Amino acid sequence: MTGSLHSIANITAITMKILFCLAILLHTATSEIHDIVVSGVFESSIMTYNYTQSREYCLSQNATLATLEQVTRAQNTSFQTCRYGWVKEQQIILARTTATKSCGSNHIGIIKQEPCGYYIAPSAYCYKFNVVTGVFHVDSPSGKYNLTFAEANSTCAGLNATVATESQLRVAHAAGFQTCRAGWVAEQKIFISRTTPAAECASGEVGIKEYPGTNEKSDVFCFRSDLNHTDVYVVYPPFGNSSMTYSEATQQCLSLGDSLASKEQLRSAPTPISDGIPGWSKDNDVVQFSSGNLTITPCVNEPSRLASAYCFNPNITDFIPVHTKDDKLWLKITMVCIIASIFIILLMAAAFMRGNNCICCARPKKPAQDSTLEKDNGLHQPRWNKTSMYIPKDDIFHQIPAYQNNDAGTKPSVLSKALNTGYRSHTFTNYGFESTPEDSEHSFDKTHPDRSPAGVNPQDASPGDSHVYSNAGFDGTY
Predict the structure, then answer these.
(1) Angle of CA points 136, 138, 142, to nearest 5°
(2) Are 220 and 129 in contact (CB under 8 A)?
(3) 325 CB contacts (<8 Å, ≥6 apart)?
(4) For residues 272 and 414, what is the distance between their CA atoms, to the nearest angstrom?
(5) CA neighbor of 196 nearest in space, from 212, 210, 176
(6) How does strand 124-127 pair with strand 190-194?
(7) What is the mean pLDDT of residues 444-463?
(8) Distances, alpha carbon 2 to alpha carbons 5, 9, 364, in Å
(9) How far apart are CA 224 and CA 21, in angstroms?
(10) CB-facing half-sphere around the CA of 279: CA atoms within 13 A
């Protein structure tokens, strides 16, 4: 049986190895390119990672997460894969040099995975409406002309500004600043600035017109030095955060009384904006300036998405494996796997069969036992004798007093039967035996007053109320 189990284990191990090799062949046939390295760029294994994990994987391979430029350069030198992967710009891309329907839907080049969008940026670009030389008009959130002078100061402070002086207001007026609303200046005066006449504004007058000093409430003119030459400015995340979402950027501009700047407003800004500061724009794009030109940064993928990783190590030697272009190879390998599996199953079935029985089910059977016997302390005794004690047949005749005394007159048939049975000698008590069916043949008439059976000398009996004797002396019991 041990040999059979050993054979089964060997066949199972061989089967598993064959199936494993076939699985590798099938994977090779259905994957067009494996472990390609070009210009230091290579892709991770079949495992997928989020953006943070992809950076960690490349580090574990003594490499860094490849940039879009590095992958593009490798793609131009025959690098291609069939799996989308992360690059440093937080994009998921696919590099293809040949058109294949199963890889990139017959597209070639650098293919970006959709949906692609923007999620965070380190800053935002706000647009200040009608600001000239840093001066702008602000009214009360609760309505027109509803600010005291003290409230005017706190309102400007909340906008990162101060209350404009009369001089600053005049400079702005000279630069073309005008409104149709009056407001406080730092000298606790109320002015209105007009450059063109309008009947509904300052009664058609132009210039800087002061209102009577008896007014207690008005709007306010604020001043910001950073807006002295532009109407676009940069804001950063509050509370020391390093980045913010589009919604947070919108709220940040609104809190300053402004809105996110559009790309057109950014391009027409009076003065250049600092280069290299990525920030949100009104169009839900992240933009930045480069040499005075506005550029839109590439969209990014959600960092929690899973993809492989493109890694870069300039010290790795290029490796381009040779692969077949037989589109039917995967079908051939699959058919081989199916046929091999059927053959292995039949082989195992033949090995496990013996005749019409499976050797796994063939077990040596124990010899049948006498149903009339019960095992007690290693010895079998009859079920029908609950008061008996089994005495091996070789010892039965030794317990016959006549045999012990070498009585030559012992009946031969008694000895013969005593020697050929192990179930005819018993221990009996005298209680409950008035007579037996054999009384008529063996003078076993009554129990003697001393409780010994007829035909047995009381002196030969054991002390007490019970006596041990052998049925061997009673032919009728056999």
Answers:
(1) 170
(2) no
(3) none
(4) 135
(5) 176
(6) unpaired
(7) 47
(8) 5, 11, 13
(9) 73
(10) 31
Q: How are beta strands 85-87 and 207-210 bridged, if at all? A: unpaired
Torsion from C-alpha of 332, 338, 344, 348, nearest 10 degrees = -170
The whole model's pTM is what?
0.47
CB 91 within 8 A of CB 101: no
8 Å CB contact between 286 and 268: no
pLDDT tens across 351-385, in order?
A: 666 555 555 555 565 555 555 555 555 555 555 55
Please state, in angstroms and rounded to a whole number, the distance separating the CA atoms of residues 68 and 18.
41
Rounded CA gap, 85 and 71, in Å?
Answer: 10
- Measured in residues, the chain has a length of 478
Residue with the bigger pLDDT between 153 and 434: it is 153
Model confidence over 56-78: pLDDT tens digits? Answer: 999 999 999 999 999 999 999 99
Tokens of 264: 């057109």
Report d(CA 312, CA 39) in Å as an integer.
8
Residues 17 and 9: their CA atoms lie apart, in Å, by 12
Between CA 271 and CA 229 the distance in angstroms is 6
Instruction: Sort 91 into a burial class: Cβ within 10 Å, 0-12 / 13-18 / 19+.
Output: buried
Which two three-digit tokens encode residue 92?
């998921």
